[in-house]
Amino acid sequence: LAKTTQPISMDSYEGQEVNITCSHNNIATNDYITWYQQFPSQGPRFIIQGYKTKVTNEVASLFIPADRKSSTLSLPRVSLSDTAVYYCLVGDNTGGFKTIFGAGTRLFVKA
Amino acid sequence: GAGVSQTPSNKVTEKGKYVELRCDPISGHTALYWYRQSLGQGPEFLIYFQGTGAADDSGLPNDRFFAVRPEGSVSTLKIQRTERGDSAVYLCASSLMGAYGYTFGSGTRLTVV
User: Fold this and answer.
1) B59 in contact with A at a CB cutoff of 8 Å?
2) Burial of A4 by CB count in 10 Å (0-12 exposed, 13-18 middle, 19+ buried)?
């Protein structure tokens, strides 16, 4: 399973765009990249998943370069409620897979 | 149900006791996962069920931990002879085969005193 590396923490202000980059140098051909968000006292919540190029949904965008050795989660115009831990995961999504969470990135959004 | 339900939400037990933690996945989800999360850490994989069988139990720390899913829906994580180091939040997640991402429950906070 590919290991991921993310910044331990990031600070931002309300209304700014936040980009969190994850490194996954050993990503395999069948691996997808998935991001989760976790608030205190809650389980992680799925945000977005992608395989290559760019994926966008109502919450975030995910940018994946051609070599797929990294990915960037982009949160547009963050608010205080986006303060959370964000996890980047890499794994095979074709039939259910063992997902390894790292320590994640703690995002602090300030007023 | 609408989401993944875990009971109890909190459990305090004495060292050496036996505990059972229950997970009710989303109806129809064939895959079920158990994780353990310590303070300040990411969730740690324990075991993965596909239907009734444990497809991967390589994350179980030792033979004091056991999980079952007899009818392919509800799962129970069982911990024998609990130790203080077992204190953590135990998270359950479920998904459809090949679906994007998992849906997690809110977890059971286990405290061994």
Assistant:
1) yes
2) buried
A48 contacts: CB under 8 Å, gap ≥ 6:
A34, A35, A55, A57, A59, A60, A61, A62, A73
A57 is written with which tokens? 């949904």
Would you give the DSSP letter of residue A80? G
CB nearest to B98's CB, from A87, A93, A99: A93
- Rounded mean pLDDT, B19-28: 96
Contact B59 A98 (CB under 8 A): yes
**8 A C-beta contact, residue A83 and residue A109:** yes
Contact between B106 and A100 using a beta-carbon 8 Å cutoff: no
For A32-60, write each residue's pLDDT tens digit.
899 999 999 899 999 999 999 999 999 99
Q: What is the pLDDT of residue B73?
A: 94
| B30: nearest Cα among B48, B56, B43 | B48
CB A89 within 8 Å of CB A33: yes
User: CB pairs below 8 Å between A and B: how many?
Assistant: 61
Assess contact for A58 and A48: CB atoms under 8 A: no
**Chain B residues closer than 8 Å to A98 by CB:** 45, 48, 56, 58-59
Structure-block tokens of residue B25: 């996945």
Structure tokens at B82: 């609990």
Asked whether residue A69 carries a pLDDT value surpassing 60, the answer given is yes
